[in-house]
Design a protein that fits this description.
The protein is α/β, with parallel strands linked by helices. Among the domains are: 55 residues, Orthogonal Bundle (434 Repressor (Amino-terminal Domain)); 131 residues, Rossmann fold, CATH 3.40.50.2300.
């Protein structure tokens, strides 16, 4: 069934989009395919024309046996996590003969909380992309509906919010990784262990928190709400959460950070107070990006296979575009504990 703006009206063409926007067909095509060389004001006109004409391909699997591009939308590319995932997507695309067209939401503080809009989904579908990969950006029900109606295969890496069962997601074994990190600290003799978390609605962040709680409870320790924080996956958030915990009458001797970026902030806050890591405070992260290897001291962390997640996402999009049904709608790749120099036994009092 085709998407039309009015009953009985034929599906709009690219020529009509160009005419409505007052641009050439070549310029409209550039906008649809995410190509450079078009002013933002012109892009806005083309996008508005797409929305007004409801210009989308017909539903169902794509007819082309060899899709040429996959559109990737990040919440932000201004962190090492995004660089690793993008590297995997590009590598996977190269193996499949598919080009990656990348985009990101605005990089202000509220970017992770802002959806990118149904109009953008329709624009991507109209470009003829094989599918859409969304990385740590929120998706609304309306946007998921738009993908389904346009026949646009959708894969989400590390969902920023809960998704329904029709959406394929790819991530790491975040719960198991949370258990691994916390058990490592428990095995070293720590009992007052803090958790510096990501956004409360983040699916991976919540899974890591649940793993942390499970490990504590299995060791007979009641999780202390005062030792559990939440914020953004950023160093500034990690520093703020750490300051709050270290101001407690009974502060933690170790902190599990829900990402390496958060862990950098934990280390910064400890350093400002003159604390020695790991003698006074053990710190463990999650991701194993370059941040973990080059901070001082080198960071003990939980490695998640970020590049592999990107490669799997690329392969999944191509399979969905070919009409294949995925074996699982929720793919989780194994995490590994990497022990470096930021954790040790607590100082004897």
């Amino acid at each position: 069934m085709q998407q039309t703006s009015e009953p009985g009206r034929p599906r709009a063409t690219l020529t009509e989009v160009a005419e409505r926007a007052g641009v050439s067909k070549a310029t409209a095509s550039k906008v649809l395919n995410g190509r450079p060389g078009v002013a933002e004001a012109t892009r806005r006109l083309v996008r508005e024309a797409i929305a007004e004409l409801d210009y989308v391909p017909s539903t169902g699997p794509r007819e082309s046996p060899a899709p040429q591009s996959i559109h990737v939308v990040f919440d932000t590319i201004l962190n090492m996590y995004a660089v690793y995932v993008l590297d995997g997507l590009i590598g996977g695309g190269r193996e499949l003969g598919v080009e990656m067209v990348t985009d990101s939401l605005e990089s202000e503080a509220t970017a992770q909380d802002r959806p990118f809009g149904v109009g953008r989904v329709k624009e991507i579908a109209a470009s003829g992309a094989a599918g859409l990969v969304v990385v740590t950006a929120q998706l609304t029900g309306e946007e998921m509906d738009a993908c389904e109606q346009a026949g646009l295969p959708l894969v989400v890496i590390d969902p920023a919010n809960p998704l329904d069962e029709r959406v394929t997601s790819i991530g790491a074994t975040n719960w198991a990784g949370g258990v691994q990190a916390t058990r490592h600290l428990l095995d070293l003799g720590h009992e007052r262990i803090g958790f510096a978390g990501g956004p409360a609605q983040s699916v991976p962040g919540r899974e890591r928190l649940h793993g942390y709680r499970e490990a504590l409870e299995s060791a007979g320790i009641d999780p202390d709400p005062a030792l559990m924080g939440s914020g953004r996956f950023e160093a500034e958030s990690g520093a703020a959460q750490t300051d709050a915990m270290l101001d407690l009458e009974n502060p933690p001797t170790a902190i599990f950070a829900a990402s390496d970026s958060i862990a950098v902030g934990v280390l910064r806050a400890a350093r400002r107070r003159g604390l020695d890591v790991p003698a006074d405070l053990s710190v463990i992260g999650f991701d194993d990006t370059y941040n973990a290897m080059w901070v001082e001291p080198p960071l003990t962390t939980v490695k998640q296979p970020l590049r592999q997640m990107g490669r799997v996402a690329a392969r999944t999009i191509v399979d969905l575009a070919a009409g294949k049904v995925p074996d699982s709608h929720h793919v989780q790749l194994a995490t590994t504990l990497v022990v470096r120099e930021s954790t040790s036994r607590p100082r004897a009092h």
